[in-house]
Design a protein that fits this description.
Largest sheet: 7 strands, mixed
CATH topology: Rossmann fold
Radius of gyration: 18 Å
Strand content: 15-25%
Low-confidence stretches: 4-9, 234-240
CATH architecture: 3-Layer(aba) Sandwich
Number of domains: 1
CATH class: Alpha Beta
Helix content: 25-40%
CATH superfamily: P-loop containing nucleotide triphosphate hydrolases
Shape: globular
Structural class: alpha/beta
Mean pLDDT: 87
C-alpha cells in the first residue's frame, strides 16, 4: 500500500537540507554531495551549473526520487521524500515530476504524439483524453504539424521539444532536466532553454535544469553553482 506523505502548507517546490551522498566504503568512499542545502520556489526556473563530476546529476537523481541520500532531507511541494516507500516514490515520479534527458529518451517506433502520451498511458488515462492532451502539448512546443512523425524523422531540437511535451503530460509541478541541450548546437540549445522559460511562465511549472553552458544560464531565474559536491551559489540571475 502506498504511504500517505506528510505535507506542509506554503512550501517551496524543492527544499533540500544538508544533503549528502557517498558511494563506496572506507578509503574508496567517494563523497558526491557534501551538505547541500537550497530551495527552489514554485514557478521558478533554476539552473545548476558546475564542471563534470561536480555532483549535478547525482543531485538531480536525488531530487527526482531516483536515488536515496546518505544523509539529509529532500521535500517536494511539502512532501518529505524520506517519508515515502518505494510505491510512494514511484507515484510521486509518475504524477508530480517530469523528466527531460540529454539523450531525448523517445521510443523510436512511436510517433511524436504517442511518445507524449506514454506517461498518460501509465496512469490509464482514456485514449481520447490522452490524444487530445498530446496534441495540445505538441502545439505548445511548436510541433502541432509533427504529431504523426517518428523520432527518426525529426531533428534533434524537435526531438527535445517532444521530450519536453512528454514531461508535461501529467501536469507535474516540477520538471527536472539534465543537460537538455547537451546534444544540440548552441542556437538550437538556446531555443530549447527559451522554450523551458516559456513553459515556466505559461504552465506555472518549476524547472530545475543542469547545464554547463553560461549562455543558457542567462535565461534562468537563479543559478546554483556546485563545486566538488558543495554549493558555491546560489547566485541571482535576471530572466529576460
Amino acid at each position: 500500500m502506498t504511504q500517505q506523505p506528510a505535507v506542509t502548507a506554503a512550501a517551496p517546490m524543492v527544499a533540500v537540507t544538508d544533503l549528502q551522498r557517498s558511494f563506496g566504503t572506507g578509503e574508496r568512499t567517494v563523497h558526491a554531495l557534501r551538505g547541500v542545502s537550497f530551495e527552489v520556489g514554485c514557478g521558478e526556473l533554476a539552473a545548476l551549473k558546475g564542471r563534470s563530476g561536480s555532483g549535478k546529476t547525482t543531485l538531480l537523481n536525488l531530487v527526482g526520487g531516483l536515488d536515496a541520500p546518505t544523509a539529509g532531507t529532500i521535500a517536494l511541494d511539502g512532501t518529505d521524500l524520506g517519508s515515502l516507500d518505494e510505491d510512494g516514490r514511484l507515484a510521486l515520479r509518475r504524477e508530480r515530476i517530469g523528466f527531460v534527458f540529454q539523450s531525448f529518451g523517445l521510443i523510436p517506433m512511436l510517433t511524436a504524439a504517442e511518445n507524449v502520451g506514454v506517461p498518460m498511458r501509465l496512469r490509464k488515462v482514456a485514449a481520447a483524453e490522452r490524444e487530445e492532451r498530446a496534441r495540445t502539448l505538441l502545439a505548445l512546443v511548436g510541433l502541432a504539424d509533427h504529431a504523426n512523425q517518428r523520432p527518426g524523422e525529426l531533428s534533434g531540437g524537435q526531438q527535445q521539444r517532444v521530450a519536453i511535451a512528454r514531461a508535461l503530460a501529467n501536469e507535474p509541478g516540477l520538471i527536472i532536466a539534465d543537460e537538455p541541450t547537451g546534444q544540440l548546437d548552441s542556437e538550437t540549445g538556446r531555443a530549447i532553454m527559451q522554450l523551458l522559460r516559456a513553459v515556466v511562465r505559461s504552465e506555472g511549472v518549476t524547472v530545475l535544469v543542469a547545464t554547463h553552458d553560461p549562455t543558457l544560464m542567462e535565461l534562468a531565474d537563479r543559478v546554483i553553482e556546485l563545486r566538488d559536491g558543495r554549493i558555491v551559489g546560489p547566485e541571482p540571475a535576471v530572466a529576460p
